[in-house]
Specification:
Length: 606
Amino acid sequence: MGASYRYASGVVLPAESIRNFSIISHVDHGKSTLSDRILELTHAVDPRLMREQYLDSMDIERERGITIKAQNVRVNWRDHVLHLIDTPGHVDFAYEVSRSLAACEGAVLLVDASQGIQAQTLATCYQAIEHDLEIVAALNKIDLPAADPDRCAAEIERVLGIDSTGILRISAKTGEGVPELLDAVVERVPPPSGDAAAPLQALIFDSSYDQYRGVVSSIRVVSGALRSASKVRFMQAGSAYDVEEIGVRSPEPTPVADLGPGEVGYLIAGIKDVGKARSGETVTDVSNPAPAPLAGYRDPKPMVFCGLYPIDGDELPELREALDRLKLNDSSFTFEPESSGALGFGFRCGFLGLLHMEIVRERLEREFGLSLIATAPSVAYIAHLADGSEVGFDNPSDMPEPSRLDHVDEPMLRATVIVPSEYIGTVMDLCQNRRGELDRMEYLSPERLELVYKIPLAEVVMDFFDQLKSRTKGYASLDYEPAGYQSANLVKVDLLINHVPVDAFSTVLHRSQADTYGRRMAEKLRELIPRQLFDVPIQAAIGGRVVARETVKAKRKDVLAKCYGGDITRKRKLLERQKEGKKRMKSIGRVEVPQEAFISALRLDE
């Protein structure tokens, strides 16, 4: 099918006939469904093979009904070639969106006609404006009984400044209005600029690993032409490779002879080392190299950290290899080796958010067959020491001793919540309980308002989103961005089992919550730790002060079973001897915490 796209073998496609655009919106506003309709309408997929969420290739995406990876596809529409990139909507995957926008000249902004503008709609729209993209706004789901397109169009005009007369009305489910949307993309989105005669400059915006063919890179040609069987250089990595295959996804991979300026496709060059083809890498021709690489991507800063440890210590090399390969496909998480007295050797990993952490962990378990323990999530703090120096830490066990500390700064977020006006009280209550400070409150319409809070990141990473959804029956939407650091009264809570601190259970909390957390964890561990032959104390301590204690009672052998009647001193002697034995055992005995106890105690949902 790919041959029909080319005008003639070896002739580069004229830029005037190309349109590159991505679909952006809030979660669940219909991006993947719209992609399905476009594939059907342009006959890119055989009707017998068509399925829902066609571009979502991972099982985990299909199960959760969300897009995690941006996917690109090339379709034909009225003498034009359209490159479409379907992007994720969740705030944790905003980095995927920013990379996709860098490969486009236009964006279709999709808004649910029954819900109107949501927090993520604003964030992704501003991102597209930053990239100087032409925005084609469309109201989706006009077939729903609750749809109110006139109100939503007026809201878009007032909040985003997009003229309401140019907003299209479509239903991605039924296909109504989708042909007009594609016509609008052809009319309004500018063709890519780029000189076909210039030296080759192509940007890698995503990669994945195929065990038979090596690294498969998604690539956007900016200038020059990429030809099959040529020799290319990766400018940042400084290595040269022979091109084995270039092609386009339509949506199945289809080899082509060349890719010209503005075209999006894939490149296979037999690369086995996953570190050589990172996102943001510039590809040029060895015989006629470009003078300078393209401006790649800013590396995203991880916000949430946790330790990942293999349940079976022998699987550590497999975990390292799995993290390397996953990093190629998702460059927004970081990892470095660390060890824990309780859990052995593992990796400290950084993520963009809690959902991102959950997805990475699930992908490691599914795609690479690993069994993992994740420690409780934490954020990156800055400790100011009494001698005037400062030190950053994201692992609670690295927090300096209280005697050396002056104060600790914690990361803050500017959280935007869009909520129906009847739930404003419950949302404000939630934000204030999480130490949030109200920054701004603005009515978008009589029924809906926008609240902007400055709130500590540590309060958001645990279960803030779930609480927000349940308190507002799912109507509130959340978006957040980093807002610097702020000093706070933070303490480290340690859990001691038989007077020995267990680093995996340490955490950094605000002083007002520390006692409650300590009591809850001590109670939970008392149920999880099996009984020993001696009493096992479980203590939660802040510095040297114990704030909670539970005891796992000893197993006892009935030493009096053979005594019936007789002198009480004989029974007492036997009990005293048993007590002495237990005392000696306690002083030399070690408590092995079973793996199940770690897994249960570190479960996020509790």
